[in-house]
Amino acid sequence: MQNAKVNHPYIEADKKICGGSPVIKGTRMRVVDIAIEYEYLNHTPDEIINAHPHLKLEQIHDALSYYYENRKELDEKIKRDKQFVQELSKTLGMGETVSERIKIYADESVNVAVVEGLKRRGVEAFSAKDIGKLGLPTNNRLKSPPQTER
Q1: How many domains does the chain have?
Q2: Would you say residue 74 has pLDDT above 80?
Q3: Rg from Cα positions in the chain
Q4: Which pairing describes strands 103-105 and 124-126: parallel, antiparallel, or unpaired?
Q5: Cβ proximity of 92 and 98 under 8 Å
Q6: Higher pLDDT residue, 109 or 140?
Q7: Strands 11-12 and 23-24
Q8: How far apart (Å, rounded) are the C-alpha atoms in residues 19 and 14?
């Protein structure tokens, strides 16, 4: 039996978007983020859609198909991202003093595993899904910094 290359109409990789990591076309949602939610957080495709309402079910399934076809490479990416978070935690000294000073509100483009890792280290971190569930008022959400001219 030959291995046929499958076309992935909803996936693209562009060095200008997320450092070239494969994403769902027209978004900054990385395939590895979908894979983490499905494989490691045990979210169903419907739960992933609820957390990211800008996505469609067929996009999620295509991302998962792409992940399984490229699992070795993408698992390495997940491992590198996890190591980065661990190194960042050590560098920042993620003790009680840091968690008292920092609140992180992450939009849908932030890796869910990063948010979960920060939570485990005591940082008050909120994913887009958490923010929706908590119903935080607009004035408590992170705003973009004003643009300054240089």
Answers
A1: 1
A2: yes
A3: 17
A4: parallel
A5: yes
A6: 109
A7: antiparallel
A8: 7
Query: Alpha-carbon distance 108 to 53, whole Å?
Result: 10
Kindly state the average pLDDT of the residues 49-53. 91
CB-based contacts of 51: which residues, under 8 Å, 6+ apart?
Answer: 37, 43, 108, 127, 128, 129, 132
The answer to whether the predicted template modeling score (pTM) of the entire model surpasses 0.70 is: no
- Two tokens at 80? 């590198």
Look up the CATH number of the domain holding residue 120: 1.10.10.10
Overall average pLDDT of the 126-148 stretch: 57
pLDDT score for 95:
46
**Higher confidence at residue 19 or residue 55?**
55
Question: The domain containing residue 30 runs over which residues?
Answer: 11-140
CA distance 6 to 100: 48
Amino acid in the structure at residue 1: M
Find residue 103's DSSP bridge partners. Answer: 124
Please name the helix (run of DSSP H) or strand (run of DSSP E) that holds residue 104, with its range, or none: strand 103-105
Whole-angstrom Cα distance, residue 32 to residue 49? Answer: 15
The yes-or-no verdict on residue 142 having pLDDT over 50 is no
